[in-house]
Specification:
The complex is a heterotetramer, with two copies of chain A and two copies of chain B. Chain A is α+β, with helices and mostly antiparallel strands. Chain A contains twelve helices and ten strands. Chain B is about 45% helix and about 20% strand. Chain B has nine helices and nine strands. Chain B starts with a helix and ends in a 7-residue tail after the last helix. The chains are: A alpha+beta, B alpha+beta.
Chain lengths: ~375, ~300, ~375, ~300
């Protein structure tokens, strides 16, 4: 079955939903923001680790639970519902996946247990431009006697403000735009020459810019084949996209439910505003898009676990649909709340702000429509 | 001869089993099962479309027979049908509670049919006129004034048969696609992408919605097998299927350019002409079997729990 | 004033509106179709000629009235309202403009009076592909002793089934796609080697495909500079686009009014369907798009008469807006009429069928958005 | 000090001239003209937004004074204003006919203001609370229970000032445009076109609507000068201006990519940060001064003549 959860997945979903609802409501993010925490929240991270969430994609042999992407998707969806600020995507999905898929036995043994336990938080440092563009990497890794020297800059690194280690994608060969010549390097956040500049982002969850100035890395810090990272990178990114689509679906669903509730309680002209037919149709259309998106996200997650060969197409489908849906729903959420939705006191704005980050990260709807079209041969 | 099985076997048959009396079952069920009798259904009227219960075809009790006067529309294959099952008004003082359900022979005196030509060309639909049609008293199915209950059940059967797959076949699957035509007629860049990026993006978006619809049908099936409630999801299908099919064919016509603007003749390809007819025919998808507006009302009220004005 | 008609223009508009309403209602087109006339209607053509419509763009010196594009736009809008099948666009706008803008004194003296009087009907034979693409001309004009020999094919020539003469755009130099190397040739419809194949089109107005096999033309049949037609061609096309946008606006307005009338008379559930708020909002949005389109069309027409240098941008704006608006309105017209709108007996289908021809001819919305973007430097 | 001229000079002044008595005109008009007094307007309430006439701020006749209790919201610059003109309820048995129009000193005992923080940051808007505020009897403008007439007139002034240009300046004209950012951040092809054809098409479409709006404003102006009726055209402007501005800023944020996702800090450019705030602020365009939903209702009913349910 593709869409029906097994008992383990269901249990995890229930746990994640309760945890998000009870311990990470939107007011929690609001509190972090008002305390200038920039999304950094060690106590929450520790609780996530206790629940085993960072180890969902880590094989049991490395102290994880190895439950796969469908399971991870449930947690991401739960976190999306309440806009939880956690490094789960950057560390538990992207970093874990690079090391699990590309790392040597020694590297896995060293890092996966620490990532699974939350002792170490990782981030993937890939994009160098304002728009996601995986092959558009200019950061240079130059061979020196003992290893490589890294020079370059990375922008808006998800979880970068949180991370203890970075997987830096750098070019060991060729030029920006080429698939061949990319390699993964594991760089600790305190490496000499690495500057991490936290970003104060619109969604109050934070991110970071990196600059690498003659950062020296050893052979042991190379993850996977030199020059040959791009295939694995694509696999890793597709996991990230499916996970982010799940999170996005969660946010859109929660914002919709909040709006529906408002339609059922707010009165104007002596009538519940939800009894106006024009708003009813708009609500029905949002519901429709959410249902369609749910199917695409569910299918992408299970296709990854079952290693279907159309994963790229399915993750682009899920990410584009989720992006468009959260865009629609976040606009309607503010509009249908009217003036109150424009105030900072209300949660509507938090959903809208997070929505644009969810849309842009790992490729927006337009990026994924382009990719989907190319994969379909037109 | 074409058995017109669907109306008898899939719709009227099940309803008759539920609502008919023993005699009626004995008389009609064997015929239905063998496909001997071609049935048509008399539901919509010119003044009763979305508001089916507004129907006005008059049925008077004349002691030893019913007397029918009025008009039906969108009666599929009425011109080829042997019998009709038909909603008539037996009480005009109440709306839903004044409707009865009759069956009768289309060869009866006073029955006339006229095929309806659509914007896309000929169609199986007819207008059907009843001018003092006499119907034997024992051909009332269910209770007098109890026809609306049967009608509702039959509409359920109809809507579930207008599924995603059902609609798409109207458009003629197996035809070339919008992206095929775009590649041929607009050209591609050096990476094989349709040169018109604006059109390409819209085609991709439509394909995505189409794919999302198929996946949703699959999700529902799996969830139903797993014993989960799927009614909420099902309610969106007809609306999405109609919109997706219409958008798909609009894009196909756009991609075809002037090749998609023919009506007949050898200067146009058969594929192009078929696309044009399919595009026009698809406009009915959001009207027949419950308009999209009614679909959205249903989602808003039954699924989302939004109320009417109080 | 850009948007306010002067008295002459107003009078012409009134005349054209009454004429279309009284003598060319949609039922007239239906009659032509049912008689397999394929849009050819000599009686109507003669009446148009009597009214002087074919001479609106012809200078007075050549027996026209020289009223300009604003005036012509009023007639086109009127004809659009009732879907009148006439060769006014092909002959009175496109053909007249080529000869007026590019022709020699002798050519003008010979042809403009005949075109103005309706004695001769012309058509512009340009496109060779399914999509409008003015420079994409492969039809070849090869120099021979006495003149040129034309070989090639033209597709979906507007008014081509009606025309006595064609302005054939052919290549005297270079390759398809190049601006330099295009020339205009005046070819009579009975020229040896020219085959005109009438097309039975979806809108029942007709068009034609042409094939040219060794069609011999003399020097005198060249209109304007050899190799240098493309600038004038663009000017001519912009006139055609503005005129067609006017026609399209007329059709969309009339279809909208018909729909509005239906909303005000059709009852379901004991209520006028126009009292349902969801339909009210959709009607209001259509009205909005029509008002916006009217402004764009009006401005494009007057910018042409006043020879503004942003005519290309303004005609693309008008054509794209008109195309999108008629697309929206024609879909809503059928949908809001419900079942009756699907029947051939109703006029809704006629508007929808004509709409797609109006959209595609001389460049669809996508073509003109592309052109508009390029003209705006992005 | 900022004179807050607009409320006094453009809105309250004209209304006072029309509805005030001689004494009131003598007292207030000179102050308004000199800009000595900063005025704010007390209209919306938490429960009365689109349905302004549903306002509940209570005004009781205490013989020698009025006693005001209640709350206003979206009171622009209330925290800096000297006086307020205010709609209050003097009769709760009827809706529109129970509203009166008062002016009073914001320094009165019992008046409190609290600035409203928007999703885009700080704003001139306030919540304003009235707790047993005493207002002299002669500060009622117009008839007792005749305030709705004045309110409607004032709303006309407000809507006409929220014109196309008005909205756009909120977004900060002079900023770089979506197409500038698209060229910088997405790149261009060999013909200088934005490489993402899908985004490019959407930017062009928005620019076209924006241009169409400007041309419509111009058309209205010319038609009005020529003595033609332009009310129908005017009714669409607010709706289109809001939508066009919102779409423009959404496209700008999309084109900015991660550069448009900052809130503060030196890692983001001032332009990028301004775009983000403008994008968020623009969401109010379709709410303030009459929601887009109310605009569409008005077009449907007053312009198109569509009726309510009967």
């Amino acid at each position: 079955m593709t869409f029906v959860l097994n008992d383990e997945q269901k249990m995890l979903r229930d746990t994640a939903m309760s945890f998000a609802r009870d311990e990470l409501p939107v007011s929690h993010l609001r509190g972090l923001r008002d305390n200038q925490a920039n999304g950094i929240d060690p106590a929450t991270k520790d609780k996530l680790a206790e629940l085993g969430f960072f180890g969902v994609l880590v094989p049991e042999a490395y102290d994880g639970v190895g439950l796969g992407m469908v399971a991870m998707g449930q947690i991401m969806e739960a976190q999306g519902r309440t806009l939880a600020a956690t490094p789960l995507l950057s560390s538990g999905v992207l970093t874990v996946s690079v090391i699990d898929l590309a790392g040597s036995e020694a590297q896995k043994t060293e890092w996966l247990p620490k990532l699974a336990s939350g002792e170490v938080v990782g981030a993937l440092a890939l994009d160098e431009n304002a728009h996601h563009s995986p092959l558009n990497v200019s950061t240079e890794a130059e061979r020196n006697g003992q290893g490589y020297t890294l020079n370059g800059a990375k922008t808006f690194v998800l979880g970068g403000h949180y991370a203890d280690i970075f997987i830096v994608v750098a070019r060991t060969f060729g030029e920006a735009g080429q698939a061949h010549g990319l390699s993964f390097f594991l760089v600790p956040s305190d490496a000499p020459g690495l500057t991490v500049t936290p970003l104060e982002t619109v969604d109050s969850q934070g991110a970071a810019n990196l600059t690498l100035e003659n950062v020296a890395v050893s052979e042991e810090q190379i993850i996977g084949p030199v020059d040959g990272a791009s295939d694995i990178l694509e696999t890793v990114l597709d996991r990230g996209r499916a996970a982010l689509a799940s999170e996005t679906l969660g946010s859109a669903s929660a914002a919709f439910e909040m709006t529906l509730e408002y339609l059922k309680t707010r009165k104007q002209f002596g009538q519940l505003i939800g009894s106006f037919q024009a708003l009813q149709h708009r609500a029905a259309i949002m519901f429709t898009e959410l249902e369609l998106t749910r199917s695409c996200v569910g299918h992408a997650l299970s296709a990854i676990d079952e290693q279907h060969n159309d994963v790229p197409q399915l993750t682009s489908l899920a990410k584009a649909m989720a992006s468009d849906t959260v865009h629609l729903v976040s606009r309607e959420t503010v509009q249908l709340h009217g003036g109150i939705g424009m105030t900072d006191d209300h949660d509507a704005g938090f959903y809208m702000k997070r929505a644009r980050v969810q849309e842009a990260m790992l490729g927006g709807a337009s990026f994924h429509r382009d990719r989907f079209a190319s994969l379909n041969g037109f | 001869r074409y058995p017109l099985a669907s109306f008898g076997l899939w719709m009227f048959g099940p309803a008759l089993l539920e609502f008919g009396n023993e005699e009626q079952k004995k008389k009609y069920i064997p015929q239905i099962v063998k496909g001997e009798i071609r049935w048509c259904q008399g539901y919509s009227e010119p003044g009763a479309g979305s508001d089916l219960a507004g129907l006005q075809t008059k049925c008077e009790d004349k002691g030893d027979h019913w007397l029918i006067n009025g008009q039906k529309v969108w009666t599929s294959y009425a011109d080829q049908a042997d019998w009709i099952f038909c909603l008539v008004r037996t009480d005009s003082s109440v709306k839903h509670g004044g409707i009865s359900f009759l069956v009768f022979d289309m060869a009866s005196e006073g029955v006339e049919t006229r095929p309806i030509k659509l914007i896309s060309g000929s169609s199986p639909f007819c207008e059907t006129f009843f001018d003092n049609v006499k119907v034997p008293k024992d051909q009332l199915v269910g209770e007098l004034n109890g026809g609306w209950q049967i009608a509702k059940r039959l509409l359920q059967f109809e809507r579930s048969s207008l599924s995603a797959g059902g609609l798409k076949s109207i458009g003629g699957s197996g035809m070339l696609t919008a992206q095929d035509y775009a590649k041929m007629n607009v050209g591609v860049d050096d990476q094989g992408r349709v040169a018109d990026g604006d059109l390409r993006g819209r085609i991709a978006e439509n394909m995505m919605h189409d794919r999302a619809l198929s996946l949703t049908v699959r999700r529902m099936t799996e969830e139903a097998q797993a014993g989960q409630e799927v009614g909420h999801t099902a309610s969106i299908l007809k609306y999405v299927a109609a919109k997706s099919n219409q958008d798909r064919l609009e894009l196909m016509i756009e991609a075809l350019g002037s090749n998609g603007l023919g009506w007949a003749g050898e200067s146009f390809t058969d594929d192009g002409l078929a696309a044009t007819r399919a595009w026009l025919r698809s406009k009915g998808n959001s009207i027949e079997g419950g308009t999209s507006e009614v679909n959205l009302n249903v989602v808003a009220k039954r699924v989302l729990g939004l109320l009417e004005h109080q």
